[in-house]
Amino acid sequence: MKKKILQYEVGESVEVLLLIKSAARGIASNGKPFLTLMLQDQSGEIETKLWDVSKEDEQQYVAERIVKVAGDIQNYKGRIQLKLKQIRILQPHEAPDVSEFLERAPLTKEEMLEKVTQFVFEMRNPNLQRITRYLLKKYQTQFLEYPAATKNHHEFVSGLAYHVVSMLELAKSIADLYPTLDRDLLYAGVILHDLGKVIELSGPISTTYTVEGNLLGHISIMVGEISKAADELQIVGEEVLILQHIVLSHHGKGEWGSPKPPMVREAEILHYIDNLDAKMNMMDRALSRVKPGEYTERVFALENRSFYKPKFHS
Amino acid sequence: MKKKILQYEVGESVEVLLLIKSAARGIASNGKPFLTLMLQDQSGEIETKLWDVSKEDEQQYVAERIVKVAGDIQNYKGRIQLKLKQIRILQPHEAPDVSEFLERAPLTKEEMLEKVTQFVFEMRNPNLQRITRYLLKKYQTQFLEYPAATKNHHEFVSGLAYHVVSMLELAKSIADLYPTLDRDLLYAGVILHDLGKVIELSGPISTTYTVEGNLLGHISIMVGEISKAADELQIVGEEVLILQHIVLSHHGKGEWGSPKPPMVREAEILHYIDNLDAKMNMMDRALSRVKPGEYTERVFALENRSFYKPKFHS
Amino acid sequence: MKKKILQYEVGESVEVLLLIKSAARGIASNGKPFLTLMLQDQSGEIETKLWDVSKEDEQQYVAERIVKVAGDIQNYKGRIQLKLKQIRILQPHEAPDVSEFLERAPLTKEEMLEKVTQFVFEMRNPNLQRITRYLLKKYQTQFLEYPAATKNHHEFVSGLAYHVVSMLELAKSIADLYPTLDRDLLYAGVILHDLGKVIELSGPISTTYTVEGNLLGHISIMVGEISKAADELQIVGEEVLILQHIVLSHHGKGEWGSPKPPMVREAEILHYIDNLDAKMNMMDRALSRVKPGEYTERVFALENRSFYKPKFHS
Amino acid sequence: MKKKILQYEVGESVEVLLLIKSAARGIASNGKPFLTLMLQDQSGEIETKLWDVSKEDEQQYVAERIVKVAGDIQNYKGRIQLKLKQIRILQPHEAPDVSEFLERAPLTKEEMLEKVTQFVFEMRNPNLQRITRYLLKKYQTQFLEYPAATKNHHEFVSGLAYHVVSMLELAKSIADLYPTLDRDLLYAGVILHDLGKVIELSGPISTTYTVEGNLLGHISIMVGEISKAADELQIVGEEVLILQHIVLSHHGKGEWGSPKPPMVREAEILHYIDNLDAKMNMMDRALSRVKPGEYTERVFALENRSFYKPKFHS
Amino acid sequence: MKKKILQYEVGESVEVLLLIKSAARGIASNGKPFLTLMLQDQSGEIETKLWDVSKEDEQQYVAERIVKVAGDIQNYKGRIQLKLKQIRILQPHEAPDVSEFLERAPLTKEEMLEKVTQFVFEMRNPNLQRITRYLLKKYQTQFLEYPAATKNHHEFVSGLAYHVVSMLELAKSIADLYPTLDRDLLYAGVILHDLGKVIELSGPISTTYTVEGNLLGHISIMVGEISKAADELQIVGEEVLILQHIVLSHHGKGEWGSPKPPMVREAEILHYIDNLDAKMNMMDRALSRVKPGEYTERVFALENRSFYKPKFHS
Amino acid sequence: MKKKILQYEVGESVEVLLLIKSAARGIASNGKPFLTLMLQDQSGEIETKLWDVSKEDEQQYVAERIVKVAGDIQNYKGRIQLKLKQIRILQPHEAPDVSEFLERAPLTKEEMLEKVTQFVFEMRNPNLQRITRYLLKKYQTQFLEYPAATKNHHEFVSGLAYHVVSMLELAKSIADLYPTLDRDLLYAGVILHDLGKVIELSGPISTTYTVEGNLLGHISIMVGEISKAADELQIVGEEVLILQHIVLSHHGKGEWGSPKPPMVREAEILHYIDNLDAKMNMMDRALSRVKPGEYTERVFALENRSFYKPKFHS
Hints:
The structure is a homohexamer.
Chain A: E1 13-27, E2 33-41, E3 44-50, H1 55-60, E4 66-76, E5 79-89, H2 109-122, H3 126-138, H4 140-145, H5 159-177, H6 183-192, H7 197-200, H8 211-215, H9 217-233, H10 238-248, H11 265-288
Parallel strand pairs in A: 3-5
Antiparallel strand pairs in A: 1-2, 1-4, 2-3, 4-5
Helix pairs in contact in A: 2-5, 2-6, 3-6, 3-9, 5-6, 5-11, 6-10, 6-11, 9-10
């Protein structure tokens, strides 16, 4: 299989197909316009510069087009860059599907749906089960495609479902060890906690925040959705309130976006499971890019820490 | 008109009817039980001790009963106390209505309803007007009776409606001065911002938080109510989202209970109007209890500050 | 009337007179010096680059000179820039007055002075009135010309007086609604609260902080000025102390520059009025630069928030 | 089996043996001395007052003596109290062993030692295994007897070992789910992270901090112990440093007592496992004392939150 | 010489003269009034209770009266208390002077004045010297008598002058070691930094804050005084501004009461000298009350820390 | 003596030898690589650009080589830059020793060693003296060569020893003024407090953090070293614990890297001495680069403040 763009070393020459993620125009010191292109495939993204561009170039080299490029991998101020030798826009008929250039979860949609469905099946409280199934079905397509965030963690196609699947397995292990936990509340909380992101975010490609996402946020959106679902299903009972609370409080604190802190056992544990899975994901991604004996870049969402990769394993 | 309990000076003897607000049992150092009673009328509350109580006393002297008391006003560790000489429970047939002992807003329910209705009438945006009218009607009875809080500010019968009326007048003045403000958004925001308190709080007497209030809070409750109201009224449009945002963000910051900060002009101003009216209410109440040249007690909700009452006015 | 520089769209060609606000020298990658010029008229400012400059150019293109320029409006990394075709320094005899290029308050000095004078006239406490009138007269010229800040809010010619006029009107409305407020203290506080800025800042053009401004700040400066004014006018009384306190505490907290928090009713309200007017000014300016459905730039002094301009108004 | 002291309801009469945990002398308002005794058995502790005590009483009723008491369970200001009818000091020959009155872990020392030993046995890295086994053996007696803290969580006999056993099982589950984690580092970190408490704390009964505990803390103590152990065992290698770091950073932040934040994957995860197990323990203990539909007391170490026990389970 | 009240051990009987520092009335559980008296001599203060007091007693046992008492020293909840056997108010003719019961600085006023005068004499900058001498003379009487604070540090008669003398010696040592420091600025800053306390505080006995102290604070008061002094002495020059800045910034940060942080070398150093001397004073006082191997009470102004007194010195 | 690089004014031409501190490769807008060189001599460092470099150039112009350069001093965006005319790598045989280009302490190693030795000699407590002498000897070479930090303060060759010498003299002065301080503890604390930096840092040239430095920090390293030294010297006694505590707590707070705050008198004072000397060093260096009437750059480690250099001294 062909090497992906981030698998090349500095100094190597490449000739590959890449997707334009974004294009920004600048003026060089000689007064001529140039483009800064972010190019990507499934291994990640790389920056390149296209000098002395014409009006037509500016109209062609835009986001979501696929290009064939030849050039050299260089190190510029500690970051990898592509120094272009040749670049050409592929015509639609000759280009592969955009999805082939996007990073995605290591499991297929079908696998993830099956796993989640199995967990729903295991739930015993009919009220919690019905609400969970109803909302999962209502947003199933987006749930399986959306990333879990625009950056930080699980920021790839199907990242949301993948995050939920990992959390469900962690929830199961923890519920096995601590018998006072209500397994159904935990499972329902895990599945719904971030489901509001399918309204908060714009979609799996070039993900941004929607106006609703910016002004209300996925937490408030989903708390409202649970209330409507219960009305729709004519479910009355304290479970509805507790489930709303678990979703409401899963960021843990006011300054992190939860208007109430966890006040129910399963809410506190969901907050921990969410963090633990997100942090493992961020650490694994950062550490996969460095060698033993090196430090990762600082990771903003990990309190701006840099992590060390020990040498003694190698 | 008869003097109210807090209008007596230290050293004066009193003979009055009072409502028991709360009763707590203790054991004196001689081993005998006693009761600490909080007694109140419309001027506020005063503590007293009932020594050497019997089992029957404990069953009789409970919250929401009305008593006839005689005694002396004393100063105990800087706080006013009533030293009992005589006390007797009034029988239901001889006691006035409980409401006569409760502090309440300076306007009647009818006056406040009329004022609020007038503001709704002045709104021009039909979507905002219909949602506001719908929710006001749905919760009208409680809106006119509930306090605005269990303590801190407007913690009296009809405090919620009174707070809203003051804020509406302030909103009108501010909208007159700053023409970029959308008057309808401000009015709708003022009327609905705390309406969730009719679900968050238990009612106008011996007010506590409901479970829903503790686990979701009045902000999330009302954001959901607006969404349901719009569905019910088949209103679609950005106004609904903006109105939800204004309610959602009116505490200003995550650590104060708003999952999103104000991101729309009227949301920011509503936050200011709410604070300004609440703080005036707290300062006025604290300062009304001291003389010129004195300081108030520290007021927790005013960053624990003590306020000075200047002498030069007198 | 001719279009102002910020009224042109990207892509348009312009030919206008502009004032040089600042000029900074750089070295291009070809080793030759260039100048980065900030050019302004009353609509705001725009950046341009002047390449390959000579020693003479560097001496000519300096702050406060007026230039005639021709060029194109471009978008560079999300910011508007002017790409020069021609530029020429105007000789003093052919250039308009510098003041024609400066942004200024929407009211004239005369209008503002009349309004402020009217408020002083309405004051009833002779001590407060005399101190206010004395200090206003002492610094009248600067009061009418200075900006209210170097950036953030009311950072234009006569911004200080304009801020005071808006606040006076707001103070009047609030005093009408809350009868416990001392109207004279509020008016005196509003007029004097920022008057120390005429010593703290360098003046209306290219405004910077003076050494006195940096080392003492406008608050401490004005507290001292009130004390001297009272001595001068032989005024003795608690009003002097209270007025000093109101000025001293108007930033609200130690970390915002007030050595004491507001401890008098009018001090707390002045703090609110000041904030409310400043924030309206900042929001209005930021929102005036975007279209419905868009977000403003992040505004540092509004806790780095970005504001949304709703579409439903349009 | 006989009921324990905290299993009685308010209003019931009791006749039981209890251990004096502490005794404090006071002067009643009649001028006579009295004792406030904290009495305990394995269910927890209860306060009682002994009035009008003689010099001899004061010398007899001291910590660690066992008493036979008769009295009534009462509610005093919301807290359970014992109102004494009779009390008598048991002579050594008639009293049960002190250990019968102390709360302890639900597993025996032997069970816990076997579990921990099994985890050490499963470690594959010989350096980590040898250091862990060496330190565990050096402090084995105290490790199996000490509480994990003086208050907050696992504050009972053998609490330290019990906390470690729970964490080891959690670590195993998590390592099963996230294959990038080094299982040996996690196990060694779990076993050693709090082992310094055997020097920091005074012992299993009437636990206080030692001077070394106060001035250095268990983290710095154990980091030094690992260094000495490695010297002693002539182990050289990066594992030693990484293991020291994991212990050093397990409180997560400087303000929580770790001079360095976690900078290695397993250090971050250990911090989470430690927190999760401690919080489950605190929530379970607090919730076990309330009924469905009630709230727990505020728990200081859980950010002073109160937890709700849902009714729908019952 | 007779033992002072705090030099007695628990269990000893005493018969001494003491000054009443404060008297507060309470109601005992038998319904009778009692007084809580704080009694003091130069060694410190002790609490006692006077039971069953009459109206006349309440009028006699008031602050600043001197009493002859006999009783026993007792330990009540970890605090020393005096259990009264006899108490009698001394008549003015038989009582010693109040000053004999007040704690005071270890140097006489004359010694301190001489030392400060010597430092002023050594100053070389005539402007700084004249302002310092002028203000010192203006407030000399109070400067030599006032405490440096109502609590925390140097809270005894002449504490202000004593604090200044210690700081001057420290300033001299530091200026000897770091030649870039301007010795005159340091000396002037030390002498004037807290001089505003003679207006902020009520005086050396039963010290409280004045209204001016509460609303303006000693820092703003003294900054204004320096300005007036310079006007009076017709001194113009940057020294005046720098000296004002040094006083203004000596608390170091906004949240500690300085509207500007130190921005001049000597201002930063003055802040350190002030802290170092205050902290030594607090630590010495707290540690003087405990034995080797013990911890002090928590000291609020030392971030609520408790200090340990090592045993190895003994 | 020849002028050093930072002693030239903008506009002057220079011809000097300089040490390359670092070299970073970039790509110019013409597509050709260039190098950004940081060049230094004992007066400090200056940036320059080397355009259009070849592969060979990139291999030659690397850190720790010495170059002969000719060029002009320029001001680029407010920073001094060197515009190259000529540059040439010196061959080892023709180049001076690297040490001649490094900034170093104003005292020689011999002078500093003699001073420190004298202080050790004056210690009277044999345990503290022996531990101090032992550790000083163990790390003597590095102690005399290492900087005290990679940046902020004393970041030059022998900065660590120079910082210790200054602090010792300050400690002596303070111990002379406050007789309750244990002089030996202070001296031992000063000498050892930062000695762990010889393990935390990589050395005197191009100083970086070692892995041990990053993961443990100099404080934990030295606390462990003291423990081992005491074992080695068979010293038992509370002094060892107290000395460890003094080193452990010298950063003052958890968030500044000390797991325990100072809890012993000398620990608190050491923290102050350390800060005072570090801040004097930072202020002196920053102020030495500006003229009277100017402000320094913002200094990050001085809370990002800018300092003013008064004019009245000149």
